[in-house]
């Protein structure tokens, strides 16, 4: 990887275009210093790993694998701890094991992790008790605390994001390759969930089948290396372009540009303007790219995105993450899938059942109903089944902790419970049990498909 200004000049073209949702940094000189520092830091990921993920996603695009992408809505600097990281990873691994068995296909595991520190917001300001302050835009930009000082964007936070991402990734790599993620261990955790949680008991039959399959392998003397380690990738929204472009490097093997802040980055629903800076940035880097598609997306938008981001029609390059809402997915998704398929592009279709289903409870908490989340995934599967296309995966906001942020689920959380452990810095996440619930239910859907 080289990092000289000339070799990465090609990634700066976004600067000539309108960039939505960028922080208003008060001191341009301080920002320039931070960018210079970030440009001198080592990459967080290796370009070859991004290529490997693109190959895995190509299998998803062809219908030969399933994508599980999940993690926090917004990571927080004060939550970079061993317990939080382990719990998140554990939950994703447990979900992955269930989906792998039921779908009989490899599950590509990608965390919203080690870089998910920046948030696009609906409004630039927030008012409480007559006081109006800039809105919280993620720990990479300003503080969550509702004070004037905390809400001023501070570019030094971009460096903290880099270091927090590095520490997180380091532990994730240690867990996934050092024995913690052994499939037999992951299955034992799933058995605990099935045995000990009221909602888990519904999945006893599936858990028993997985148990038998593992016992059979054991009896045959099989002890494959693949059981002992897990391939796990990191992703986040490429929102703050000063950070993403400062972390872009020329790959010395190929001479191409990679955003080495994460393996995969995505462009959000609020920043996917076809002539905007975010799409321009994403068009310049070789990482696998995701784009969120909300209910107002037209087939022409989708086709133009393909033209801009995947001109060579390379399976695995582009993932469309649809987030329509449970009430719209059956109506809006079919035309998009039909027209994209007819264009010959082989994208990954994955379902984010979170962002189209948010509402505010009477208590003022932003929340989501587990049933709506499930219904959007069901609608997504129905649409793809009807069209003969591949429902490639799910993209979920979740945590491994027992928070009370979304209502419903097998171990039901009621609206009146929301205040008990409402810990998200932005949007509500599925807790551990709701996430496992979802995995078992999606596994059943995938199997029926
Ligand atoms: O996570 C996604 C967005 O940042 C979030 O949905 C925006 O939320 P807001 O409407 O509270 O700004
Ligand atoms: C902001 C997000 O989603 P969307 O762009 O779909 O609203 C997100 O996934 O964090």
From TrEMBL:
Residues 1-23 are annotated as: Disordered. GO terms for molecular function: 3-deoxy-7-phosphoheptulonate synthase activity. Residues 1-11 have a biased composition (Polar residues). It is an enzyme of class 2 (transferase). It catalyses: D-erythrose 4-phosphate + phosphoenolpyruvate + H2O = 7-phospho-2-dehydro-3-deoxy-D-arabino-heptonate + phosphate. Its EC number is 2.5.1.54. SUPFAM superfamilies: Aldolase. Pathway: Metabolic intermediate biosynthesis; chorismate biosynthesis; chorismate from D-erythrose 4-phosphate and phosphoenolpyruvate: step 1/7. Keywords: Amino-acid biosynthesis, Aromatic amino acid biosynthesis, Transferase. Belongs to the class-II DAHP synthase family. PANTHER family: PHOSPHO-2-DEHYDRO-3-DEOXYHEPTONATE ALDOLASE, PHOSPHO-2-DEHYDRO-3-DEOXYHEPTONATE ALDOLASE 1, 2. This is Phospho-2-dehydro-3-deoxyheptonate aldolase.
């Amino acid at each position: 990887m080289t990092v000289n200004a000339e070799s990465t000049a090609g990634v700066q073209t976004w600067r000539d275009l309108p960039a939505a949702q960028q922080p208003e940094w008060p001191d341009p000189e301080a920002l320039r210093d931070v960018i210079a520092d970030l440009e001198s830091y080592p990459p967080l990921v290796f370009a070859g790993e991004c290529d490997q993920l693109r190959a895995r996603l190509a299998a998803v695009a062809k219908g030969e694998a399933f994508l599980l992408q999940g993690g926090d809505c917004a990571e927080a600097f004060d939550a970079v701890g061993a317990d939080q990281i382990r719990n998140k990873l554990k939950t994703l691994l447990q979900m992955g094991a269930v989906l792998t068995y039921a779908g009989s296909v490899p599950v590509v595991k990608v965390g919203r992790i080690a870089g998910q520190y920046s948030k696009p917001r609906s409004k630039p300001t927030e008012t409480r008790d007559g006081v109006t302050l800039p809105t919280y835009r993620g720990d990479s930009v300003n503080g969550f605390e509702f004070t004037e000082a905390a809400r001023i964007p501070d570019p030094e936070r971009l460096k903290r994001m880099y270091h927090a991402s590095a520490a997180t990734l380091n532990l994730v790599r240690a867990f996934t390759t050092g024995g913690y993620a052994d499939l037999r261990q992951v299955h034992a955790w799933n058995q605990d969930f099935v045995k000990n949680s009221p909602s888990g008991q519904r999945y006893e039959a599936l858990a028993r089948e997985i148990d038998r399959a593992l016992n059979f392998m054991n009896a045959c003397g099989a002890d494959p290396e693949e059981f002992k380690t897990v391939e796990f990738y990191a992703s986040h929204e490429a929102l703050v372009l000063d950070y993403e472009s400062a972390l872009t490097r020329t790959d010395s093997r190929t001479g191409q540009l990679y955003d080495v802040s994460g393996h995969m980055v995505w462009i959000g629903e609020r920043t996917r303007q076809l002539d905007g800076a975010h799409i321009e940035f994403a068009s310049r880097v070789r990482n696998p790219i995701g784009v969120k598609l909300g209910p107002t997306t037209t087939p022409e938008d989708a086709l133009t995105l393909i033209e801009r981001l995947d001109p060579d029609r390379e399976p695995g390059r582009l993932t469309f993450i649809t987030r329509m809402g449970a009430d719209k997915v059956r109506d809006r998704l079919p035309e998009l899938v039909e027209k994209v398929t007819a264009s010959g592009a082989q994208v990954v279709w994955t379902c984010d059942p979170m962002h189209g289903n948010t509402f505010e409870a009477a208590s003022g908490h932003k929340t989501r109903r587990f049933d709506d989340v499930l219904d959007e995934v069901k609608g997504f599967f129905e649409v793809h089944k009807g069209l003969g296309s591949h429902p490639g995966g799910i993209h979920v906001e979740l945590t491994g902790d027992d928070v009370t942020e979304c209502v419903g689920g097998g171990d039901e959380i009621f609206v009146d419970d929301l205040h008990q452990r409402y810990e998200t810095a932005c949007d509500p996440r599925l807790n551990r049990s709701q996430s496992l619930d979802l995995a078992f239910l999606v596994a059943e859907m995938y199997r029926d498909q």
